[in-house]
Design a protein that fits this description.
The complex is a heterohexamer, with two copies of chain A (about 100 residues), two copies of chain B (about 130 residues) and two copies of chain C (about 140 residues). Chain A has four helices and five strands. Chain A has a five-stranded parallel sheet with strand order 4-3-2-1-5. In chain A, strand 1, helix 1 and strand 2 form a beta-alpha-beta unit. By secondary structure, chain A is of the alpha/beta class. Chain B contains five helices and five strands, in the order βαβαβααβαβ. Chain B has a five-stranded parallel sheet, sandwiched between helices. Classes of the chains: A alpha/beta (about 100), B alpha/beta (about 130), C alpha/beta (about 140).
Chain lengths: ~100, ~130, ~140, ~100, ~130, ~140
């Protein structure tokens, strides 16, 4: 019964990621892509909040968008898994619905 | 599995149409069906054939047209959103007394009902926007 | 799910009206969608709660005032408008600041009933988790 | 030598207003318009921050945008002055430069 | 006083072009000069003549064309931004081998240099975007 | 100000690259503007600091990688790239995470010098307050 949530805006500019994380259910998946991948970085002013609010969900980041922005995978928050577009498709297929936080 | 895709932002300005394109390609490569791609809000601007992007950049509209041809995708541009933004096909141009049209090959203009129908028929509906 | 079954559609509104067109074009989807006999609800959270405020007067801006359309939703059998309490609180709003949106309940002798249902953030999350299709604006 | 700063995005969604207020100089003017007018409301989760960061500047809100959004002028933060488009023009003319926080 | 105006977002989707229009009208009414309005990013989409907005809504492109005519405003659409988004005038359409053009009366297409020139010549430069 | 005088232009970059086009089209303005012999500087704050990071590789997205252009700015005599320290800090970035952007100082025997100048938020505010024209992206 899980949901795939997607977030594509930078959490430093926009509230979408925080609002998403405040509405997830245990066992949901959250995919960060486009500028949303900045939310997956460790060592930022938002890292602790993201880690805390995202504790009960699986957090993914789209590899192509992480690479485009020059984020080294060693800089990602612990527990964040990289996926490619095929993995994005799998996440959407394997959850019951997708909610896009625009 | 049957995916329905919504694209809500215009080409180049937002990454939404690129992400949607990459998602659709990946879904098709995995053997899924993409029942429709519905272009809404500024997304309708993806479907103009009048763009001339820099030669060293991707050609967003041509990518979609080619993908539609290869996989018989149904690329639908919302008529209400298109009218506000200046996207027209030949019939609509005639009907509205406009002297030009600009829709690209492989796209068709239709009503919002096509979005709802897609949501009903698809197993998953995914929106790319901003 | 068979084709005959009714799907649960949720229209999620998280943006303020007028600065961008999302709220207005979301309403257009909802009105068209009403013809499809699905199980429809709207969610208003974050800046989306601003869409429902009373007394909107767009004359000075030149923009079209689409706020009366929310009061017409009941005529289209769109009768469940979920509004998040926390989003109201953060914006200093109460139910009194929102339009009085009613529908006639045909199962109850056409009694007028409120369409707006204020829910907590947890309830909103649960509502979202029950849907078949979520369209976000 | 003052600057007119303009902010047109909702501060509940976007960081523009806070970033603007952290870069103003004493005596500057800040005009809130479009969805930016929500930043001029009292009694919100952001009111105290806006009042504090905006203490050394003159804050204005565009009347047409305030009315469009149904905000009663009694709900505006203390010290926020309403201006019309002509007043917006005057603010731009009477300051030395305009900085738009997009 | 001489104002230079930049419009960075497309019509209807964002309020930017409406706000710019109201500002320009107010500036002209006060006797100021508006040396140029420069349309950049999605702002170029304001200058298409192919829009058919709902009849009970404002006609953004026609408002600008009329204001330009009345006050001899210089409405400039950035060519680089326009090419990405499918805005063309007749000459450019011919030169690029496109079979239609869509620019509206009162707008002209020119280079980014016009933006810098406007910034140099105007007393105040104001950007409407999002 | 007479027409012959040089104006101080500041290009303010507050948005991340790739998700939206503002960063890229801002660069196009700066490159064209360089021909006009004005006093030009660029400011990077908030998410704008992400524009300058090293190692951007857009192949997987299909987007055009425009980050090498920042290193070419010196050739256009755009040599002042002000980066806000607080914006870096909030994003967990240091100067080491940014591209090494240099220019040749023709007044100093073409010595290579860094174009990036890290400034505090207060200094950024003061810089903004000195400008004639501010273009924001």
């Amino acid at each position: 019964m899980a949901t795939l949530h997607t977030v594509n805006r930078s959490p430093f500019q926009d509230q979408a990621l925080l609002s998403c994380l405040r509405h997830v259910k245990k066992g949901d998946s959250v995919l960060l892509f486009e500028d949303g991948v900045y939310g997956a970085m460790s060592g930022t002013a938002l890292s602790d909040t993201v880690a805390e609010l995202g504790a009960d969900v699986s957090v993914y980041a789209l590899d192509a968008d992480v690479a485009a922005r020059g984020i080294d995978s060693a800089r990602l928050l612990e527990g964040v898994a990289l996926v490619d577009y095929a993995g994005f498709v799998d996440l959407a297929a394997n959850t019951e619905r997708t909610q896009n936080w625009l | 599995m049957k995916f329905g895709i919504v694209v809500n932002e215009g080409p180049y300005t937002h990454q939404a149409s690129d992400s949607a394109y990459n998602f659709v390609k990946a879904a098709l490569a995995k053997g899924h069906e993409v029942s429709r791609v519905f272009f809404y809000h500024d997304g309708v601007n993806v479907g103009t054939r009048l763009t001339i992007p820099p030669q060293d950049d991707r050609q967003i509209q041509e990518q979609w047209s080619a993908l539609a041809k290869e996989h018989e995708l149904d690329l639908v541009i919302c008529i209400a959103a298109a009218q506000r933004r200046g996207l027209l096909d030949e019939n609509e141009a005639k009907r509205q007394g406009k002297d030009a049209d600009n829709i690209a090959e492989g796209f068709r203009i239709s009503g919002l009902g096509q979005l709802i129908e897609m949501g009903i028929e698809a197993d998953r509906t995914i929106t790319f926007g901003d | 799910m068979s084709d005959d079954e009714v799907k649960k559609f949720l229209y999620v509104n998280r943006k303020a009206p007028y600065g961008t067109i999302y709220a207005q074009e979301s309403l257009e989807v909802v009105l068209i969608g009403a013809a499809f006999d699905q199980d429809v609800a709207m969610a208003f959270l974050d800046d989306g709660v601003f869409q429902l405020t009373k007394g909107q007067d767009t004359k000075g801006t030149g923009l079209k005032n689409f706020s009366p359309t929310y009061r017409a939703l009941g005529d289209y059998e769109v009768t469940k408008l979920y509004v998040e309490q926390e989003s109201l609180d953060e914006r200093g709003l109460t139910l009194d600041d929102l339009q009085d949106i009613q529908y006639e309940d045909e199962d109850d002798d056409y009694a007028e009933k409120p369409s707006i249902i204020v829910v907590s953030r947890d309830q909103m999350a649960s509502l979202m988790a029950e849907q078949d299709v979520i369209l976000s604006f």
